[in-house]
Amino acid sequence: MKINKPRGTRDFLPEDTKRRRYVENILRQVVKNWGFNEIITPTFENLDLFTLKSGEGIVGELYNFTDKGGREMSLRPELTAPVMRMYVNEMQAYQQPTKLFYFENCFRYERPQKGRFREFWQFGVELIGSSKADADAEVIALATEMLKSVGIKGKLHVNNLGVIRYLLSTLDLEHQSKIMRLVDKKDDKGIDDFLEEINAPADLRIKLLELICLTGQDAIEKAKKLVGNIPEIENFQELLKLLDAYGVEYIIDFGIARGLDYYTGTVFEIYAEGLGAQNQVCGGGSYKLIKLFGGGDVPSTGFGLGFDRIMEVCNLEAPDDTPVVLIAKESTRLDAIRTAMRLRPYMPVYTDIMKRNFKAQLSYASNIGAGYVIIIGEKEVESDKLTLKDMENGVQELLSIDEVIMRLGNR
To answer: Contact, 348 vs 324, CB < 8 A?
Structure first.
């Protein structure tokens, strides 16, 4: 019986996996160079962890289940809540700021489409313990540096939600939350209809719709005319000065909202070229979740990179690591094994395990694109040398094993 992979999942063949790991490792190195440490959380968590953060409505999007002990569990749909849970459980005594990163698979039960899968990979960063603009700026600069490191051109849009929230402060929290979700969806008509439905003052309606349309370098001055020179705008300007110092290019965009109640101030999104409508590859901002999970009132800033979308537009190819193929006769097979064991600390090596003849082994090496083969016959064993053949030009050399290591070990 043939069994297919589940809907919304993918198999990654060797060439796909090699390329994904190559890009992943570049991103890892960038994050490590910025002083962040990797963590790993469980693939499944208590369902309450995600409903506490996002509300009961998220259950329809989850792979949730009841385990054999009657506990309500869920495969993780994202990593921020698990990291905050881990921090509360294990890390509250750590020196602040605590700088963490992760790269894991996540699961959402939704309709698969281009760029959206039921199993997907997220590369994320959380900086815990600072409410300063400096923390927000570092996290944003890191996100742009990561994308740059893998050759992705992205447009960074940045906002401070405090400005919108100041404008909405006369409304009750439930109405504010709904408006923020509509802003996040760019649903101007829905915003206008809802403001009319709740009988919001006409002045508020006009100012809000003007504010969320403000973008570009003059957006700050225009926002001041709408809400005044409030502290939230001053904080926003401090962030922008820091981004300038990092050399980060950005677009001020008062229409960025992220649509989630726990974001406290700075929010940002990065859109990549070449992805069509689903072009957001990164999103994040400053937030407070630790108190919700039983910890202190600790500020955090973070982001998530959509790794699958990154792979769609990333043009990097993994360097060639095709193995060196050892070709031996029946009489020198054991010598080939011993030679392979000496070479493998320095390079990938293939030895024949099919008992092919000499010609078939050479043909195999050609078929897999091996750059070099090493021939081990009686002559080589007697002289304690190896015949190294360059498969591209056919040139053969008789070398010691140390010379082969020096030649091929740094490929």
So the answer is: yes
String of b and e for 381-407 (b: at least 16 CB within 10 Å)? beeebbbbbebeeeeeeebeeeebbee
Instruction: Give the tens place of pLDDT for each residue, 299-309.
Output: 999 999 999 99
Q: Which of 258, 285, 313 is the last residue of a domain?
A: 313
**Residue 99 in domain:** yes
pLDDT at residue 196 tops 90: no
Residue 328's domain comprises 324-408
Q: pLDDT tens digits, residue range 121-158?
A: 999 999 999 999 999 999 999 999 999 999 999 999 99
If asked whether residues 123 and 37 sit together in one domain, one would say yes
- Structural domain contains residue 319: no
* Bridge-based pairing state of the strands 349-351 and 324-328: parallel
Asked if 272 and 147 touch (Cβ cutoff 8 Å), the reply is yes
- In angstroms, the CA 287 to CA 44 distance is 23
229: three-class secondary structure by DSSP? coil
Quote the pLDDT of residue 411: 58
Which range has the worst mean pLDDT, 81-95, 217-231, 254-268, 284-298? 254-268
- Domain closes at, from 313, 332, 356: 313
Q: Do both 272 and 362 map to the same domain?
A: no
